[in-house]
Every structure is written in C-alpha cells, then in structure tokens.
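Running this now, will post back.
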Amino acid sequence: MSYQFIHIESYSRKAGKGKAGGNSISDIIAEVTRVPQASSHVQKPEPPDLVFGVDPHQLVEMCESYAVTMISTFNRKNRKTGANVTVTRKMREDGLCMIGGVFSAPSQMPVGTWPQYRKEMINKLKDEFGDRLKSVNEHVDESYRHCHFYIIPLPGEHFDNIHPGKRSASAVSGGGVVKGLQNKAYNDAMRKWQDEYWMDVSKKYGLARVGPKLKRSTRPGWAAQQALVILNAQTLQDNEIKSLALRNKEVKLNIKEANLERLFAQARKVETLGGRVGMIFGGFVVATQFIKEWLVLQKIWPGISQVDEEKARAQKAINSLQQEKKILKDEFEIVKTDLSHIKADKARLDSLLSELSHTKLLLTESEHHNQLLAEEVNELSRLLKPASANKI
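Update: finished.
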C-alpha cells in the first residue's frame, strides 16, 4: 500500500496575482467539469461523477451569493467637512470565498475497497464542515482514483474561520507578531488536520501518514513501517468483522429466545382452555364459546396431552440458549481484550517512532553545532597565525 493524500487550496471569484496559482473559481470548475480548454492534460476527458451535493456548475453562483453577504462597514472622517461618515464596502473580487480540495487512493488499493474509503472520507468532511460542504465529484478518466470537493462558508461567515490553517494563523496575528510565527501556526494546523483524517479514516485502510521522502526514511525502513501499518489495519478490520458477527449472532439468539417465550405463553393458554372444559357442560349458553375456543386450540396446539412435553422442550431450549449467550459474551470479551492489546502495542510503537524522530533531530542539531564549532576553531587559528609571525 502507499500513503494518504488529501490537499486543499483557497480560491476567489477573480484570482489576484500570486493567489491560488492564478486560478479563479471559474477556472477550477472548468477543469473539474472537463471543459475542453481546461482539460488538455487528460487524454480522453469524461464528465465527473457527482458523488455528493450540487452540480459543480452551481458553485460559481453560490460563491457570488456568499460574496453579497460579506459587506463591511467602517467610519472615517470626511476630508472636506471633517465629519465622521459611515462607509460601506463590498467584498473584493479577489477575496477568498471557496475551498477546493482533492483526496485520492493509491493504485495498490483494491478496487472493491475504494467505494468504502471514499464514503468514509466524505463523511469525515461532512462532520467537519457540515452544510458548507457543497459538492464532491469523482474523476474516472485519469489513471488514479480521486475526488474533488468544494466548501463554501455560510452567509456572513468569514473565510478564515472555516479554513483550518488560516484560522490558526489568524489566532496569532496582530500585536506585532512576526510573519514567521503565523506561517508556523498555519503549517502546524494543516499537519494536524491531515493527521486527523489519517487517524479517523486512512489508517484503517493500511495507508501511511506520509511517504518515505517526507519522513526521510530509507526505502527498506519505510517498507517495514508500511508493512506494520498494513498488519495493524488488517487486524483492526478482522476484529471489527468478528465483533459484528458476534453481535449479529446475539441478535438472532434474542429473536429465537423471544419466539420460544411466545410459544411458552401459547402453551399456558392451552392449559387455561383445558381448565374451561368442565365449565362448558354446566350450561348450553357457553357451548358456542367453547366451540370457538376449541377451534382456536386446534390451530395453536396439536393436543392438550402434549402441553407438558412441549413446555419441557421449550424450557430446555431456553436453558441451552442462555448457555450459548454466556459463551458468546465470553468470546466478545476476548475480542475486546485482544483489541485493547493491539491498541496498546500501537501506542508503544508510536511512542518509539516519536522517540526515534526526536533522537534524529538531536543528532542533526549536534552535527550542526559541531560544524559551527569547527568553523570557529578554523577562524581562530587563522587570526592567531599573523600574531605568531610578528613575534618572530
């Protein structure tokens, strides 16, 4: 298997210089809908499959409607009169108003796994963005499986409030904060955002969080880590399947027990009808009712003489059922214990990987320090040589 890929960009109605790679919302929609001028990179363009939400053509109009709600007002002095006046401004055309993103699956992912993975990724986006998630479209005309998704703020909602990176950068802005700290806050938030999608979705499918280059691992080392990720994912899936099977079995046993209890109740009703037989001959008035009840009795039970025998069999079946439920609960507890052990092992592995990463960082810093020290020694030696020559 490979590693997770999910990425987002910010777009405006008219891209300013250096913004969003020079692409506007209209440009992005043209590419996803396979307008000929915007799809020259695809050999045989095909329209996308709409997986969720509205047709992507509607997004341009939705962004225009959102922009109308973003009107800012402020006070300033009139240069001629000196009086305070209220000024109203509309949203600039290059103001950000849509998040566009893509998530994909590696070529090694089984074809039958992709629909479930896609569904879980969309559900994760719904949980995070709610009604702001407007459209998800899958391209089927390229070599790798991927979906494009689009997010628009609610009316009157500031764009930075919905973008995970910009939200964190805005939180540390102002008050003389340097740009570098804002960039760090932005990058840290985006890494955390991708970590959450990996923890909640991609990890279960055996995908690594990052590739070998970003982790700076050797190919063999990364392959070993990837094999462990796949093994853990498979074990979790197996345990989930087994737990689901046990729960389904328990439901069936409960239904069976309820049927037996109902049969038991019918048996008691037969006994009650049997007790009424002696009363029927006490008067002609109740004879008709007896006939009706007797007909019902014939349908419910083959004969009064078999009541005790059937009751005994029913009780025996209930006892067996209760014993089987006890065994089922014991098996379920074993599965829960195994799952707990797996999670503990994974936590220890994550801790070891974190310690290893920290150690590598310390080694890198130590090497850098030694290099600086060597440079200082060389500079000192160079400065001392003229002094020694003057003494001679």
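The longest strand covers residues 96-104. More later if anyone needs it.
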